[in-house]
Amino acid sequence: MAAGTVDQGAGDGPIGALVGELRRAGVGQVEAGTRRRAEYGADASNYRVVPRVVVFPREEAEVLAALEVCRRGGVPLTARGAGTSIAGNAVGEGVVLDFSRHMNRVLGVDPQARTAQVQPGAVLDAITAAGAPYGLRFGPDPSTHARATIGGSLGNNACGARALAYGRTADNAVELEVVTGSGVRFTARRRGGTARAAGPERELLAGLDTLVGGRLALIRTEFGRFTRQVSGYSLEHLLPENGADLAKFLVGTEGTLALLLRATVRLVEAPRHTAMAVLGYPDMAEAADAVPALLPHRPVALEGMSSQLVDVLRTRRGQGAVPAGLPRGGGWIFAETAGDSAAERSPRPTGWPPTRAAWTRRSSPARRPARCGGSVRTARASAAAPRRATRPGPAGRTPRCRPASWARTCANSPP
Question: Is pTM beyond 0.90 here?
Fold first, then answer.
């Protein structure tokens, strides 16, 4: 639909009145037709909530205008990126703001500071592509990285397969330009342990200081206890010893506290070489038990997969759909390592691989996530390996003294 027109499906009722208010406030692209509302009534979750109106903001001024209309009329407002959420985060009954159509640019990259300034609708792969000429990338890479937006990733604190090396989205948030439901616009950043609130957000931040200061013991003992504790409000970021980082605190709040206008995110150095090893175990429980012994080898990524998934593929598409080199087992761990050279990316010393397996390795320049492919050899655990382990995990044996069936190690295909 062309900019500046009103969807004829709006009618003259409450929805038509809302469309008119948005248009008079300066919001250009407003759609309320049956088809468009149906499209935005669902995301990647099982939920369905049909909105009244869908807005495609072209600039920050239109976002602020839409927010003002919704605040005056008591209309719910939901920010949306690619709609890849599986928890119903991108659907709402009021106005849905789709940032992915227009506000999707990488505004700039600072290679010295290793940061990028981005709009909410910027796709994660676009941020990585912008950093690639400088040898940089955006660290968190959920499975939907080719279409997921930074706004959604900041909203739910996305992690991805390589969170072991690069952390969660909260760990990569530097500054967030936001506006609250009451219209207070400010830049959320690390304030420092003793910094006082200043600017239009003074009253808001003073209230947060009071909230945190009165519950220090509770926050220190119950929040941030493990790295993937991402649900709810991450109050541990507001502790004075953590620098009272308001940007990191807002990550994961799903737009319930503020609406994102732009963000400055941290970039990480892209590894030049990567390698992947596939380890087979009798079941997923034993694969999970093996993880602690793998961590000292500093893997970039560890992903588990159950044989039940492979069985479905084999049943539906035939045996040929399953790679011949996949090791025996009821569960697998895919372990990726990285480095600036082929030697650095291969965790050869100090007990790796976890069995006396003959294994192959190739290296190639890597500027994108590794893929397991190419010509590789099957490697099997040596029969001469000791029958009992001196320590648990994949250091020769699983906790039940069964050999970890080693299959193959492969480097990523050339980009």
Answer: no
Query: What's 219-253 look like in SS3?
Result: HHHHCCCCCCCCCCCCHHHHCHHHCCEHHHHHCCC
Domain ranges of the chain: 8-98, 106-268, 273-411
Tokens of 263: 């963000």
276 vs 273: CA distance, rounded Å: 11
pLDDT digits (tens, 9 = 90+) for 32-76: 999 999 999 999 999 999 999 999 999 999 999 999 999 999 999
203: its two tokens: 């009253």
Distances from the Cα of 334 to the Cαs of 37, 250, 294, in angstroms? 41, 32, 11
Q: Order of strands across the sheet with 273-281?
A: 301-306, 331-339, 273-281, 405-411
Q: Identify the DSSP state of 160.
A: B
Note the CATH architecture for domain 273-411: 2-Layer Sandwich (3.30)
Find out if CATH 3.30.43.10 is the number for domain 8-98.
yes
DSSP single-letter state for residue 50: -
Among 3.30.465.10, 3.40.50.1860, 3.40.50.10230, 2.60.40.10, name the CATH number for the domain at 106-268.
Answer: 3.30.465.10
Predicted local distance difference test score (pLDDT) of residue 370: 32
Crossing angle of helices 60-73/14-24, nearest 10°? 140
